[in-house]
Design goal:
The structure is a homodimer. Chain A is built from 25 helices and eight strands. Chain A is mainly α. In chain A, strands 4-3-5-6-7-8 form a six-stranded mixed β-sheet. Chain A has a two-stranded antiparallel ribbon with strand order 1-2. Chain A has two domains: 20-381, no CATH class; 435-567, Transcription Regulator spoIIAA, CATH 3.30.750. Chain A is elongated and about 100 Å long. The two termini of chain A are 60 Å apart.
Chain lengths: 568, 568
C-alpha cells in the first residue's frame, strides 16, 4: 500500500511551511502573474478561443497541480505548443461549439493523463525520441510564429499549414493595415529587445538586480498597457486595427462539462496526442529544475498532477494546460520554494480577471501576436537539428520527417509520422544483429571470432555466436544467415548457436528456431544450442521446441565442441 | 551492377529445361488446375466478385510470377485471406464499381510490392511477429467460414464482423432453405471426408498411390459436377437454391485499368495491408518448400515477382493474388520442378474458362461455400494459440488482440492493432535493460556484479555496467537508475558507466548522457565512461558531448578504477 502522501504531495511540502518560504513564494508569484496575464490571453487567441479562456485556464489548474504534482517549481497553464494542437483539433468548430470542444478536450486529456498515471503508463512517453520531440517543437514554433503574422499585418487568412499561411499572406499583401503593422512590429521589436538587453541596460543605469528583473518580466504587460493607451487615445479601432473587444467580467462558475459522445469520438485521438506531448514537455522541464536542487519528481505522479490540472481546467471553462518551460524557469529563478507560489499566482490571475478585464477591450490583437512570436522563437532550435544531423543520419531522418510533415500537414500528422518513423528505424537497426562464427583459441577453453583471431575450427562443426536478443524483427535475418553459412560449408554436420548475449527469445524466434532445426535436419545437419542464459532456458522449457528438439543444449561452448568432436 | 538473371529468374531455370522436367511439370499442372478451378470461383465469390473474376486472376498472374519469382514451386492465384481482405476493402461498392475497385486494388498492390522490391524494403514484413500473423490467419479462417454459412443455409445476411454474421444468421433462422442446406452440408461432409480419408480408402481398395492422389484432389471438382447435375436434373433453381448463374464466356482482353485518384486515395491503405499480408504468407510458403530441396528464395525479388503477378491480374480484370499455401504444397507434392508448371496451369485455366463456363450456370453457391469452408478450416490453428500462451504472456496478448479485433471489427483493424501492440510490447521489454553495479574481483583485473560476487568497491567510485544498447525507449530508465543510485550513495565522487555491451547510443541517449553529466556535476560528481566499443566511440566523437565532457573515457575498467583511486 502506497502512502497517501505519495498521491498528495501537498501533505509533504506543506509540513515545513514558514514565513521565509512564504516570502519567497509570494515574490515569485507576483513576477509569474505579471508574465502570465498577457501570455494567457495570447495563447487562448492562438488556440482560436476568446482571450478570457486563457485566464480561466490559469486559475484552478494551478491549484490542482499544486495539490497533486511532485515538482516544487513547475508553473502550469496554457502553453504555446498545446495551444496550437488545440487550435488544430477544434478548428472545424466555431462560436460556442469551439468552447464546448475545448472544454471536452481538456476533460478528455485530464482523464487520459489520470488513467495513465494510475496504470503507471508513464513509459509510453519514452516512445517519443528526443529528435522527434525537438523537431516537433521547432516546427511548432515556426508554425505558431507564422500563424500570428496575419494579426501583425492586419489581414485575414485561413489554413493551418505553412503553405496555406504563406500563400494566404502573399495573396493579402495589398490589404495590409499599416497602423496594425506599426503596432505589431513595434511590439515585437520592443519585446525582443527587452528579452535580450533590457535587464543589462537597467542594471547599467543603476537599477538593482531584482528590480531590473521584475521590470524585464513586466515588458509584455507594459507593451499591453502602452498599446491599449495608443488605441484608446487615437481611436485606432476605427482605423481598422483589430481589437480584443469586450471580455465578460467575473469568473466562470465551476460546472461539470456536458459530455457529448459524438464529440468525444472525434476528439479522443487529438486529446491523446495533446496529453502525450504536454506530459513530455512538462516532465522534462520539471526534471531539469528538480535536479538543480537535488529534488526528485515522480513521472507517474506527474501524470496524476497534470490530469487533475486538466480536469480543473475543464470545470472552469478552460482548455488543455501543461507545465510550461519559460514560466517555470521564471518561477524558479524568482525564488519559488514550494507549489504555494502557484496557488498565489492563481489568486493573482483570479483578481486580474475580476478587475482588469474591462481594460482589455481596446487591446490590439497585434500586441498579443507579438507576445506569442517573441515567446515561441525560443522554441525554434536549429542548432539541435544540426547536431542530430552530424551524429546520426537515421535519427535525423525521423527529425526531418517530423518537421516537414508538421509544417506541411499540421501538428497531428507531424507527431504521428515522427513516432512511427523512429520506431521503424529502431527496429531496422536491431533487425540486423551482429553474429560471429567462432573458433577455439589454441590451448584454452575460450572461443573467439574466426575473422579476428587465430583459432581452431572443425570442418564438421560450425559455431555461431549471436550478439543480440532474438525477436520478431531479426528472426528472418538469423534464418538467412544460417542458410548462407550452410550453403557455403558443405561438410557441416553440427551447427551450434552460442547464446551468451541473448537476453530474450520471443515466440516468433522460437518458431524460427523450430523451422531452422527442421530445415537443417532435412539437410543432414543437427542444430545445438550452447551458453543459453538461465531465464531464457526456463522459458524455452515451457515450449514444445525442446521436446521435439533432437540436438543438445550445452552449458558451455567448450563442452559442446568436445562432445560433438567425439561424435563426429 | 546486379546480373539481369537476378531480376529475371526465368533465364536461370529455363536453361536446363528438358523432357524429364517437362513431364513432371505437366503432371503437376493437371492436378493443380483441377484443384484451382473450383477454388478460383469460390474465392472470387468470397471477395464479393463474380466467379469468373477468380478464373481471370488465375491465368496471367501465374505467368508473370513464373517469369519474375524466385520460388520453383510456389503456386500464385486468389487465396482465402487476401480475398477476405479484398471483400472488406471493396464492400462499399456494388456492381461494376466493385469490379473497378478490385482491379484498382490489384494494381495498387502490384505497384506497392514492386516498389518495395526495388527499394529492398522486404524487411518491413519483419514487423509482423509470428503470433500476430498466426492469430490473424486463425481469425480470418473463422471469419471466412462464418461468412459462408449464409450460402449453406440459403439465407441472406449482411455485415462482415463475427457479431454481425452470427446475429444475422440467428434472425434468419426461420428462412432456411432446406434443399440448399442439404446440398451445402452434403458437400461440406463429402469434402471434409475426402480431405481426411479418401486417399487411404482408395488405396485400400487397390487404387495406386498417384491415381488415388489425383482422385482425392479432384474431390472439389467432383462435388461441383455432382451438384450441377442435381440442380439441373431436379430444376432446383426454382426451389429457391441460389445458383452461380450465367458466366460470360471467353477471356477478357488485357487492358490498362482506368486510374481514378479518388479511388486510389481510399484504397491505398487496404492495398498496403493486402500487399504486406500476401507477401508474408507467400514468402513463408516459398521458404518452407525451397528449404526442402536446398533451393533459395530471395525475398526482395519475391516482392518483384508478386508485384508483377498483381499488375498482371489488374490488366486481366482480376483482383489481388498471392502465393497460396495449399495449392503450392499440392504443386510441390505433385512433382513440379520449375515455374513452367505454373505456366501450364495458367493455360489449363484459360482453356477451362473458354470451354467450361457455360456449364457453371447451374452450380449452387452452396457448393462453392462448402469448398471455402473446408479449405479455410485448415487455417484455424488453436494449438499455436495455446503454445504462444504457454510460452509468453506478452506475445499472447498481441495475438489475442489481433484475433479479437479481427473477429469483432474486421481484418484491417485486426492487423493494425496486432502490429502496433507487438511493437509497443517489444519496446516495453527493452525499455528496462539490465544494469549491474560492479566491483573488482580481488587480485584480478576483472569486475563483476556486486550482488553476485565478493568484490572490492570504493565508496567514492561507483561503476555501473549497462547490458543493452542505449536508445530513446530506455534512456529515461538509465536517468532514473542513476538518480536512485546517487541518492542512495552520498559519498560518490565518480560514476563510471561501463559499456562493453552497448552496441548503439542514439541521439536521444546522447542527450540523456549530457543531461546526466550536467546533473551529476551540479551534485559534485564526475561522470566517466569505460570500455566503449569502437564504432560507438567513433560516433560520439562527432558530437559536442565529448567536447564539453569533463570526465574521462577509459579503454578498460581496471584502468578507470586505478586512475580514479589515485585522484580520490
Amino acid at each position: 500500500m502506497k502512502k497517501i502522501t505519495s498521491y498528495l504531495p501537498i501533505l509533504e511540502w506543506s509540513k515545513g511551511y514558514n514565513r521565509l518560504t512564504l516570502t519567497s513564494d509570494l515574490i515569485a508569484a507576483v513576477i509569474v502573474t505579471i508574465m502570465l496575464i498577457p501570455q494567457s490571453l495570447a495563447y487562448a487567441m492562438l488556440a482560436g478561443l476568446p482571450p478570457e479562456i486563457g485566464l480561466y485556464a490559469s486559475i484552478l489548474p494551478l491549484i490542482a497541480y499544486a495539490i497533486f504534482g511532485t515538482s516544487r517549481t513547475l508553473a502550469v497553464g496554457p502553453v504555446a505548443v498545446v495551444s496550437l494542437m488545440t487550435a488544430s483539433a477544434i478548428s472545424q468548430y466555431g462560436g460556442t461549439d469551439a468552447l464546448t470542444a475545448a472544454v471536452t478536450l481538456a476533460l478528455l486529456s485530464g482523464f487520459i493523463l489520470l488513467l495513465m498515471g494510475i496504470l503507471k503508463l508513464g513509459f509510453i512517453a519514452n516512445f517519443l525520441s528526443q529528435p522527434v520531440i525537438s523537431g516537433f517543437i521547432t516546427a511548432s514554433g515556426l508554425l505558431i510564429a507564422a500563424s500570428q503574422l496575419k494579426n501583425i499585418f492586419g489581414v485575414s487568412i485561413h489554413g493551418d499549414t505553412m503553405i496555406d499561411i504563406m500563400s494566404g499572406l502573399w495573396s493579402q499583401i495589398h490589404a495590409v493595415n499599416w497602423i496594425t503593422l506599426a503596432l505589431g512590429a513595434g511590439s515585437v521589436v520592443f519585446l525582443y529587445f527587452s528579452r535580450l538587453r533590457l535587464k543589462s541596460c537597467l542594471q547599467a543605469i543603476g537599477v538593482n538586480g531584482r528590480s531590473a528583473d521584475i521590470l524585464t518580466r513586466a515588458a509584455p504587460i507594459l507593451t499591453v498597457a502602452i498599446t491599449i493607451w495608443l488605441t484608446t487615445a487615437f481611436d485606432l479601432g476605427n482605423e481598422g486595427v483589430s481589437l480584443v473587444g469586450a471580455i465578460p467580467q467575473g469568473l466562470p462558475a465551476p460546472k461539470l462539462p456536458m459530455v457529448d459522445f459524438e464529440l468525444i469520438k472525434i476528439l479522443i485521438a487529438p486529446a491523446f496526442l495533446i496529453s502525450l506531448i504536454g506530459f513530455v514537455e512538462s516532465v522534462s522541464v520539471a526534471e531539469t529544475l528538480a535536479a538543480k536542487r537535488r529534488q526528485r519528481i515522480v513521472p507517474d505522479q506527474e501524470l496524476i498532477g497534470l490530469g487533475a490540472a486538466n480536469i480543473a481546467s475543464a470545470i472552469s471553462s478552460g482548455y488543455p494546460v501543461t507545465g510550461g518551460f519559460a514560466r517555470s524557469v521564471v518561477n524558479y529563478d524568482a525564488g519559488a520554494e514550494t507549489p504555494a507560489a502557484s496557488i498565489f499566482t492563481a489568486l493573482g490571475i483570479a483578481v486580474a480577471t475580476l478587475l482588469l478585464t474591462p481594460l482589455l477591450a481596446n487591446l490590439p490583437q497585434a500586441t498579443l501576436s507579438a507576445t506569442i512570436i517573441v515567446a515561441v522563437l525560443s522554441l525554434v532550435d536549429f542548432r539541435s537539428v544540426a547536431r542530430v544531423y552530424k551524429y546520426s543520419k537515421s535519427d535525423f531522418s525521423a527529425m526531418a520527417a517530423t518537421i516537414l510533415v508538421t509544417l506541411g500537414f499540421g501538428v497531428e500528422p507531424g507527431v504521428v509520422s515522427g513516432v512511427l518513423l523512429s520506431l521503424i528505424l529502431h527496429l531496422y537497426r536491431t533487425s540486423k544483429p551482429h553474429m560471429a562464427v567462432i573458433g577455439q583459441i589454441p590451448d584454452t577453453e575460450h572461443f573467439r571470432n574466426i575473422e579476428r583471431h587465430d583459432v581452431l575450427t572443425d570442418d564438421s562443426i560450425l559455431s555461431l555466436r549471436i550478439d543480440e536478443s532474438l525477436y520478431f524483427a531479426n528472426r528472418r535475418f538469423l534464418e538467412n544467415r544460417i542458410e548462407e553459412l550452410v550453403a557455403k560449408n558443405a561438410s557441416i554436420k553440427h551447427l551450434v548457436l552460442v547464446c551468451p548475449a541473448v537476453n530474450l527469445i520471443d515466440a516468433s524466434a522460437v518458431e524460427s528456431l523450430e523451422m531452422i532445426s527442421h530445415r537443417l535436419n532435412n539437410l543432414g545437419i543437427q542444430l545445438h544450442l550452447s551458453e543459453v542464459k538461465g531465464p531464457v532456458m526456463d522459458r524455452l522449457q515451457r515450449t514444445d521446441f525442446l521436446k521435439n528438439f533432437k540436438g543438445s543444449v550445452f552449458l558451455r561452448q567448450y563442452e559442446a565442441v568436445m562432445t560433438l568432436q567425439k561424435k563426429a
